[in-house]
Design a protein that fits this description.
The structure holds two protein chains of two kinds.
Chain A: H1 9-19, E1 23-25, E2 42-44, H2 49-61, E3 66-69, E4 86-89, E5 96-100, E6 105-109, H3 114-122, E7 126-127, H4 138-144, H5 151-154, H6 157-160, E8 161-167, E9 173-177, H7 189-193, E10 202-209, E11 211-212, E12 216-224, H8 229-241, E13 248-253, E14 260-268, H9 270-286, E15 293-295, E16 313-319, H10 324-338, E17 343-346, E18 352-357, H11 362-375, E19 381-387, H12 390-396, H13 409-419
Parallel strand pairs in A: 2-4, 3-4
Antiparallel strand pairs in A: 1-2, 5-6, 6-10, 7-11, 8-9, 8-10, 12-14, 12-15, 13-14, 13-17, 16-18, 16-19, 17-18
Chain B: H1 8-15, E1 20-21, H2 24-28, E2 44-46, H3 51-64, E3 68-71, E4 88-91, E5 98-102, E6 107-110, H4 116-123, E7 128-129, H5 142-148, H6 155-158, E8 165-171, E9 177-180, H7 192-196, E10 205-212, E11 214-215, E12 219-227, H8 230-242, E13 249-254, H9 255-265, E14 275-283, H10 285-301, E15 306-310, H11 313-324, H12 326-331, E16 336-339, E17 342-343, H13 349-363, E18 367-372, E19 377-384, H14 389-408, H15 427-430, H16 433-446, H17 476-479
Parallel strand pairs in B: 2-4, 3-4
Antiparallel strand pairs in B: 1-2, 5-6, 6-10, 7-11, 8-9, 8-10, 12-14, 12-15, 13-14, 13-18, 16-19, 17-19, 18-19
Helix pairs in contact in B: 1-3, 8-10, 13-14
């Protein structure tokens, strides 16, 4: 189904074809989100920033809604766009434009697959220190703000992004930052676009700072009894605050009332990692864990970046690590009240946990999120629903919606109005924000 | 725009009479920041003591269309805190408390006027430190660091202010108090915290800052290596980075700056060296030990004539003293000097230094080089006699030519000092009109009336009602045959 009948499809098709060599009609397979079924009228695959700008100029002229698409793995996050006339796929812009290994910098087209990029960088013993899926694109990673376990040490995409090229809704091409790591000339638009989920414009190029691939890594894993909450909190804080310099401190509780698993990632030289892993195992042992195990390979439950299976509701809880005990307690209480038994996992040492509510009674997931927000109201942090089926989204109305309370909301709206005054970029994606 | 003096009664109500400065002589003490070549006497100076007072002051300015400028410790080197001659200067130095330290969460909440070093001093006993360490850290304020996104010698490994600030309470240019970020480092919606940091005081005034604290390293080791040429020192830097080591800091000084530092603080650097390289390693003891062995051997391989190393804090401070005194020490060699702040890709350092040398020879003006070699951030010190108008002019031309060289090699016109009022004229050489217009969309969202630190960063202010038309034409650098991104 075409989502809009407000324009003359023929003249739009002609204009788009003139702007971009690869344009086709949208099909059911291009739908943004299974249950909402917004199918784009057109799919454009630009091969360059220039082509992308031409597409967006056509969209501006005809007041078309535009949704950027990278790997598509997080396209169902947030709320699905309320309309989509042109889906701009980045798959043809997939090149590593420059890898300056001596400068530890890589410039990528936004459609470059992170797995391909990783392989290219690894040849020089370097990496982009983000834990993201191989199929994700560079632009998609930035736009979704995806970060996995190593956010404790390296931060999220905004911390590694040093330059960006964007196309605004009116077709203007703009750049900020550059290809040197240290640079404070002008406003940093990369920060603004990181996590903007396609609502401010189209990202066509990104430049990342790189890190050397560690020569060795070790995982120190410990298991705690279900009732050993204070000990777990001590262990997580001790590991994250230790001068042994953990790259990640992850926590997982796969079953609602089951044991709690903690695993710490250490990266560095072979000798250094061996010595640090032994010391970290001692540290966890002192917190009351069962004997901590050191391994070169990740435990089977070691997570990637957050992801939601079809039908699942994915809730992100962010907090100050000193409140970990309170947060875990509040999750349990809210789950009990809502009558669900979700799994909990995440970067506890960095103050982020993800709660996955399996498909089921939609009201229960929404009640859970609402109750959790109520319980953590006075704590610093937030409860955001990253992905949810339509019924859960509907049930969240009146419970803080998807985003919960967001500081600086009126400024965000002002920014959106400046960058995309017609609200044509991924409309509806951030329902409460813009 | 109303006359700022009309605001005196309201400002006095808000801040109290002793905290409103109107005496012309006293006003003049605020006429410049660390860059003394740009001056303007403010119409009025206020020193608010709370976030509520800052909001009141800004609201009063907004109500009357009076421009305002925030000032921290006034140590900035780009004129970012130069007052507006018809506006209000809001001095944050009374708001200098560390409000809260949470050692488990590794967070501190501080007021903007607190000095950078005070934060580390407040948490040192807990085994923590605040990582960004600009050379002026004894006096510069954390609020100013947020405005400038300050770096420091150790940002090579530890990152910039923006990587260590997780929440800001700000007063918007319309006078509203709001938070950007909540101290978790996880953003919901747009990352306005990131966009605000480094905006040079043009998007609002910071009233509280949540900073990330870092566990103090188990071991720190400083290596000094002396070379007969800058090229040899540069080779050592390239080899160290190539070996997969990210030191906490890599600094280099040339003969002229070594000589100046020696004369000023008797730092005892090897005599007659053409380049001194400082490499600091920090981290877990086991890692530092392994890295140290590699660094020492690479420094030697690059042809060091002398290598020293120190892990003792007193010895390390002694070695650092030469580097940290360099700017002031060079001042003793010359009646006046310009501190330049440019960035080039690290691999271009050798070529760019050679270019600076020949520019200096052609102009007949001495340039001392002190630089953060690890991240390609150059601080050429252009020495001149300000009693001679011709020499002053030549120094400025040379200083500009150095920035042109940085742009030509794909670098930046500023790595850590900011654009301020000093470098706005260079922005069009690095960015296209569309780039600058797009950046100013952020300005328009925060400050449509253009009252908050106006005249900084952008050479041409944008009228916020304007809708940008489609522009065509090549990027200026691309048109010049230079690829800068």
């Amino acid at each position: 189904m075409h989502s809009s009948g407000t324009y003359a499809a023929d003249s739009v098709a002609k204009a788009l074809a003139e702007a971009c060599a690869d344009v086709r009609d949208g099909a059911a397979a291009d739908a943004m989100d299974g249950d909402a079924g917004v199918v784009p009228a057109f799919v454009a695959l630009p091969a360059s920033t220039g082509e992308a700008a031409a597409v967006l100029r056509v969209a501006a002229e005809h007041e078309l809604a535009v949704v950027p698409r990278g790997g598509g793995s997080r396209l169902g996050w947030g709320a699905p766009p309320s309309r989509c006339d042109v889906l701009v796929g980045m798959s043809r812009m997939d090149a590593v434009l420059e890898h300056a290994s001596g400068d530890l910098v890589a410039r990528l087209q936004a459609g470059a697959r992170m797995g391909d990029v990783a392989a290219a960088l690894a040849a020089a013993g370097q990496e982009i220190a983000l834990d993201v899926p191989a199929g994700a694109t560079a632009g998609g990673v930035v736009a979704s703000g995806l970060a996995g376990p190593r956010r404790l040490r390296y931060g999220s995409p905004r911390d590694l992004l040093i330059g960006i090229t964007i196309v605004l809704a009116n077709g203007t091409v703009a750049r900020s930052g550059g290809k040197v790591v240290k640079n404070v000339a002008g406003y940093d638009l990369g920060k603004l676009f990181a996590g903007s989920a396609g609502t401010l414009g189209l990202i066509t190029e990104v430049t990342f700072r790189l890190h050397p691939l560690p020569a060795a890594r070790a995982f120190v894993a410990a298991e705690f009894a279900a009732d050993a909450l204070p000990a777990v909190c001590d262990a997580v804080a001790a590991a994250a605050n230790s001068s042994l310099t953990a790259s990640a401190v992850e926590l997982s509780r796969p079953a609602a009332s089951g044991p709690l698993l903690v695993s710490v990632l250490l990266e560095g030289s072979a000798d250094g990692v061996a010595a640090r892993a032994a010391a970290m195992a001692d540290l966890l042992g002192r917190s009351g864990a069962s004997r901590a195990k050191v391994s070169e390979t990740a435990p089977p439950w070691w997570p990637g970046p957050p992801a939601a299976e079809a039908g699942e509701t994915l809730v992100r809880v962010s907090f100050w690590v000193s409140a970990l005990g309170q947060v875990l307690g509040a999750i349990d209480a809210a789950a009990r009240d809502a009558g669900i038994a979700p799994s909990v996992a995440g970067s506890a040492g960095a103050g982020v946990l993800y709660v996955s509510c399996p498909p089921g009674e939609p009201g229960a997931c929404a009640r859970f999120a609402g109750a959790l927000r109520g319980a953590l109201d006075h704590a610093r942090g937030g409860v955001a629903v990253l992905a949810a089926p339509g019924e859960v989204r509907a049930a969240l109305a009146g419970r803080g919606g998807m985003a919960g309370s967001v500081p600086g909301l009126s400024l965000m709206r002002a920014v959106k109005d400046q960058f995309d005054p017609g609200h044509r970029m991924s409309p509806g994606r951030f329902p409460e924000v813009i | 725009m109303a006359d700022a003096s009309a605001l005196i009664p309201r400002m006095t109500d808000i801040c109290g009479a002793p905290n409103v400065i109107t005496d012309p002589l006293e006003l003049r003490t605020y006429e410049c920041d660390g860059l003394t070549s740009h001056r303007a006497t403010p119409a009025l100076v206020v020193l608010p003591g709370t976030a509520g007072e800052v909001a009141g002051v800004v609201r009063a300015c907004a109500d009357h269309g009076v421009p305002f400028v925030a000032r921290g410790s006034g140590t900035g080197l780009s004129g970012g805190a130069v007052p507006h001659s018809e506006g209000v200067l809001i001095v944050m130095s009374r708001m200098r408390r560390v409000l809260e330290v949470d050692p488990v969460a590794r967070r501190a909440v501080v007021e903007p006027g607190v000095t950078n070093l005070k934060v580390t001093e407040a948490v040192r006993d807990l085994g923590l430190f605040y990582a960004p360490d600009p050379s002026s850290q004894v006096v510069c304020s954390v609020g100013g660091n947020v405005a400038e996104n300050s770096g420091g010698a150790h940002c090579l490994k530890h990152g910039f202010t923006v990587n260590h600030v997780l929440g800001l309470e700000i007063v918007t240019p319309s006078g509203e108090l709001t938070w950007l970020g909540d101290g978790t480092g996880v953003a919901s919606g747009y990352d306005l915290l990131g966009a605000f940091t480094g905006s040079e005081g043009t998007l609002g005034i910071v009233t509280k800052i949540i900073v990330k604290l870092t566990p103090a390293p188990e071991a720190v080791h400083l290596v000094l290596a002396a070379y007969d040429s800058l090229e040899a020192g540069g080779r050592a830097v390239t080899d160290i980075i190539g070996a997969g080591i990210v030191p906490a800091a890599i600094e280099m000084m040339d003969a002229l700056s070594i000589e100046a530092a020696e004369a000023a603080v008797h730092c005892g650097y090897p005599e007659g060296a053409a380049a001194v390289l400082l490499v600091e390693l920090d981290g877990p003891a086991a890692e530092v030990e392994a890295e140290l062995a590699t660094v020492l051997s690479l420094c030697e391989k690059a042809g060091a004539r002398e290598i020293r190393s120190a892990d003792d804090p007193v010895q390390r401070a002694g070695i650092w003293a030469g580097r940290k005194s360099a700017f002031a020490a060079v001042g003793r060699l010359s009646p006046a000097y310009i501190v330049q702040d440019g960035v080039v890709p690290r691999t271009a350092l050798g070529d760019v230094l050679a270019r600076i040398w020949s520019l200096s020879q052609e102009a007949g003006i001495r340039v001392a080089n002190v630089f953060h070699a690890g991240d390609g951030n150059l601080h050429p010190l252009v020495l001149y006699n300000d009693a001679s108008a011709a020499e002053t002019e030549a120094a400025e031309v040379l200083s500009g030519a150095i920035l042109d060289t940085c742009i030509e090699y794909g670098g930046s016109i500023t790595g850590e000092h900011g654009v301020g009022v000093d470098k706005s004229k260079y922005m069009p050489k690095m960015f296209s009109p569309d780039d600058l217009d797009t950046m100013q969309l952020v300005r328009c969202a925060f400050d449509p009336a253009n009252l908050c630190n106006p005249g900084k960063i952008f050479p041409t202010p944008r009228l916020c009602g304007e809708v940008p038309g489609p522009r065509r034409g090549a990027h200026p650098a691309a048109a010049a045959g230079v690829e800068i991104f």
